[in-house]
Write a structure and sequence with these properties.
The structure holds 2 protein chains of 2 kinds. Chain A is mainly alpha-helical. Chain A has a single domain, classed as MetI-like (MetI-like fold), CATH 1.10.3720.10. Chain A is 74% helix and 1% strand. In chain A, strands 1-2 form a two-stranded antiparallel sheet. Chain B is mainly α. Chain B has 2 domains: 31 residues; 59 residues, no CATH class. Chain B has 4 helices and no strands. Chain B starts with a helix and ends with a helix. Classes of the chains: A mainly alpha, B mainly alpha.
Amino acid sequence: MNNRAWLFLLPMLIIMSLSAFIPLMTVVNYSLHYIFSGSMPQYVGLANYLEVMRDSSFQNALGRQLIFSTMVLVVQIPLGIMIALALPKKGTGATISLVLLGIPLLIPYIVVGIVWRLFTQSDIGVVPKVLALFGYAYNVALDPIDAPLTIFLLDVWHWTPLVVLLCYAGLQSIPDAFYQAAQIDGASTWKTFRYVTLPKLRPVLILAVLLRFMDSFKIYSEPLLLTGGGPGSSTTYLSLFVARKAESYELGYAGAVSVIYLFVVVTFSFIFFQIMKNLGKGEHSR
Amino acid sequence: MIEWLATNLEWMYWTIPSGIFFGGLFLVVAGMGVWDHFSPNINRKGFFPMETSRGDRLFIGIISTIGIILLWLALFGDNFLWGAIALSSAWFLIEARWG
């Protein structure tokens, strides 16, 4: 790389330093201290990490988060592919479908939380009233199963359209010649999907899986507004857990949780990326 | 220079261990860049189920080291932490050489 190219990289490196590296280094430094507002920070080494790793409330929040993120991937990715396959390929129908699918993505997180709270509130919400007609006593504020399930459905409603749009764009870029060749070979619908569509969608699916996994780990506003992390701690996911600790001025502890949080996201993202990148490699050589 | 940094970066609560950690990390990444310039990387297939570059193996080594130390803390507390460091160093060397 020549020297001029380095000059072009410089602004990005400065922005990255200010927005990512310095905050990260500060959080790591915080995590090594006992910090309480108003008093001098005291260096405690790995004591915060020890406390976090042995804290059952952290383990529960992490477990809850992993279950949530796994469910997000298991449901949203296949559902997104199916909807994208079912959408009209061209014409007014395609335009209308894409606009409708884009609407949930345009709504801010806070508004989504408030809208779903109004829909699901036990006294005035439409969801409890409709479910009561079928004999189900739905209560998002008190039932530890209804609450996480509602947050999950909210996320599916809010973010599956992103997967659909990505897959739709990926499908549009597959040349018709591949499908014509499959048809001439007498491939069934399933085999065409398995050996033509899915491999061609791989780059888009890598992006969708990584985006949805990382985003699902950041879920914060929706549980905060809808359930406040409850009932009990059934919807206290990692972001909410960290925020609660930081709000209670346990900054060293919150720093340690943040570093572990980052570690988990980076590790799983790397694993997913490698799996998706290598999936199906070498099949053409059979 | 060092005095200026110490005064103006006081709010970051730097400590010697974290300084060594980040300094080391920066030097390793810079060193990998220089190494790659003089001897370009060739991906290879070791005992990992995929082809890896030098950078991949370094990344896996760092992540595994953090993971081993965190697991050690969860299982054994901060007793014999040198054990965790020895274990992670051994794993780092193995995966860097044969991974």
